[in-house]
Structure formats: C-alpha cells, structure tokens
Amino acid sequence: MKNSSNSRAAFLRSCALAALGLLCSCSLAQEAPPTTPLNTYVLAAIKAMPGGKGYDASQATVDRLAASVTVRGSRFRADLDQAAASFCSGATYIVFLRTLDLLQTKGHLQLSEAALARYANLGVKDGEEIFGRWNANGPGTAKLFAELNCGSNFTSYEKALPGDFMKIWWTDEIGGRERGHLVVYLGTEGKKIRYWSSNIPAGYGEATVAKSKIKRVLFSRLERHDRLEKATSLSPKNTFLADMLTKPFTWEQVVRECRITK
C-alpha cells in the first residue's frame, strides 16, 4: 500500500512538473508550440545576420554560399565570411535556416537527420530540393510553403506583419523574363515599405521602396513549425518552379499552384 501511494505521488508530481515545462520527453519538445508568433523568430534571425558584404547574383556566389552551409549535430552552420557577397534569395534562405535553428534551440522543433540534410543542400538547380524551390523565379517561397503546408500565402498589405517573407515583382512578367526581389517584410511607412534582404549594391541590410514602384507582391508567413519535417517527403524536383527559369507564367497559374489568398 505504501509503495502504491508513493508511485501515485510520484506520478502526480511528474504531471505537475510536465505542466510547468520542467519535465518533458523529446517528442513533447518537438511538438511544443512556441509562445510567440513564428515571425518573432524570423526577426531574431535577421538580427544575427551580418551587414553589407556586397551584392552578387553570379553562379560563383551561389556556389560559395552552397559550400558555406553545413550541418553540425542538429544545427545549421553558414560561414558567411567564406560566402562573401550575397544575393536576395540566398540571404533570405539563410534567415529561414537560422529561424529553424532558433526553433530547435528553444525545443519547439526537432528535425531528423534526413530533413536537416535536405534543408542544408544548396548545391542544386532551380526547382530542385528545398533551396532550389526557394531560389527559383516566381513564387519560390510560396510554393515551398504550400507543399509543406507550413504557412499561408497572401497579397494584402493590410494583413502583412513584420517577419513575413515577401516576393516583389518590379514588372508584370512572371517566370523567365521577370525582375524581382525576395525580402523579409519589416513594415509600411506611409507610401513606402521597409524590408531586409541582400540589396544592390551593399548586400545584407534594410531598405525602403515606394509602393508605386512595385507591380506585384506575395507574402508568405511561416505558421506551422510542426510541418517542417515534411521536407523529407517532397519530390526531388518541382517542375512548375524549374520551368520558371525559362518559361512565362500567368498570375492565375501562380495562385492555383500556391493556394494564394488576398
């Protein structure tokens, strides 16, 4: 009887400690929801990024960035001194990886070795693996989020929040002939928007642009950290994004593919 009472007391104490967050298993840590919006982690990742270093979107720069990203234990490492100059999709992808790192450090995410390897593989062509989706023309980030079902894609400035990933189109072209910019949205100041990215010519840093210069925008908000492990089940190549390199696309096609709302 005494042993039974002790066991019950120990069980109740364990429940109380678990409720207080003082006792947990790895599976609980993986599923524990963050107490702040995921955008908070994106903004924290930006603060840890360097400034400047110059802008260069050449294949040599892409290759240096790919070589600089590794996995050590359960953490991503990016030697940005080795990578030197940067480009917009590469800069925002490093912010994305550092966001995942912060979520893992806080116990909200526990990616498998297979998932870590796929996220860290930057030596790919447009549309391939994870980075190739992110790095593609058109709605690369939005399509990735739609495939992972890890967030929402929308076009409204009124819904936008600091920490949303944002694709900007400077012209009406989508795909092979487009001119665009991939950034992290920081806010609206009157008729201008403020964002962080790798920008011409300085590289890493904040910038502002008049809304009147923007033809189209697409926001992607990370909302479901528990879906990020799904990276292991994505196809090695997304043909829709791979074709963005050479073919033109319509906005209607983008909306269907990426489940975009206003």
Would you report the number of β strands? 10
Biggest sheet overview = 8 strands, mixed
Structural classification: alpha+beta
Strand order of the largest sheet: 1-8-7-6-5-9-4-10
How far do the termini sit from each other? 64 Å
Q: What is the number of independent domains?
A: 1
How big is the Rg? 20 Å
Hey, roughly how much beta strand do the residues contain? 15-25%
Shape, principal axes of CA atoms: globular
Task: Name the average pLDDT.
Answer: 89
Order of helices and strands: HHHEHEEHHHHHEEEEEEHHE
Stretches where pLDDT falls below 50 for ≥5 residues?
A: 1-31
Determine the number of helices (DSSP H or I, runs of at least 4 residues): 11
How helical, in percent, are the residues? 25-40%
Give me some keywords for this one:
262 residues, alpha+beta, 8-stranded mixed sheet, two-stranded antiparallel sheet, 11 helices, globular
